[in-house]
Specification:
Elements (H helix, E strand, L loop, with lengths): L1 H28 L8 E7 L10 E4 L2 E11 L6 E7 L10 E6 L6 E6 L12 E2 L1 E3 L4 H9 L14 H10 L1
Parallel strand pairs: 1-7, 2-6, 5-8
Antiparallel strand pairs: 1-4, 2-3, 3-4, 5-6
């Protein structure tokens, strides 16, 4: 009977520690929305590697998190819901862009405040956006430039090359 009680006690301790680690990781990671945050949205042409839980920053200071990303079925734009700290009031003409955390890292939303005297209200939308830049696509286009339809750059057919060789 004593061994069963000891095993039960160790099991309870393990469960309490696991719950503590889970609570800590969720609070540090910013996965859940704090009470009092207000939510706004932004539509992007390209979401890239942006994911829920990513940071939202103004001037490099974290002011919120991305709470959800969905696809607008009418416009085929990525709609990001941003949970913003209530102490941060963003001007209505602010600009949001998706920026990379590094070459291989994730992405976050960077907001550049505008000059409007009106603020974005809860449930509002940032109209000026810039989607994620496909860095690997840009590098690939520099390494392997596409033809672009230029006839002078296209290789000549074998028969045309033979006729040119005969002239010289």
């Amino acid at each position: 009977m004593g061994q069963a009680t000891a095993e039960t006690a160790v099991g309870v301790i393990v469960l309490v520690l696991a719950a503590g680690f889970l609570t800590y990781s969720l609070s540090v990671g910013g996965v859940h929305m704090k009470g009092g945050d207000y939510e706004i949205s932004a539509k992007f042409g390209e979401a890239g590697s942006l994911a829920p839980g990513a940071a939202v920053s103004v001037a490099g200071v974290k002011v919120g998190t991305v709470s959800q990303i969905t696809l607008d079925p009418n416009t085929y734009l990525a709609v990001a819901k941003l949970s913003i700290d209530p102490t941060v009031k963003l001007p209505a003409d602010s600009t949001a862009k998706i920026t990379s955390d590094g070459i291989l890292g994730g992405a976050h939303v960077s907001i550049a405040p505008g000059a409007s005297l009106e603020d974005i209200k809860a449930g509002g939308q940032i109209e000026n956006t810039q989607g994620a830049v496909d860095l690997f696509g840009l590098i690939g286009s520099v390494i392997r430039p596409q033809d672009g339809g230029d006839a002078a750059a296209a290789p000549a057919p074998p028969a045309a090359a033979a006729r040119r060789a005969e002239r010289y």
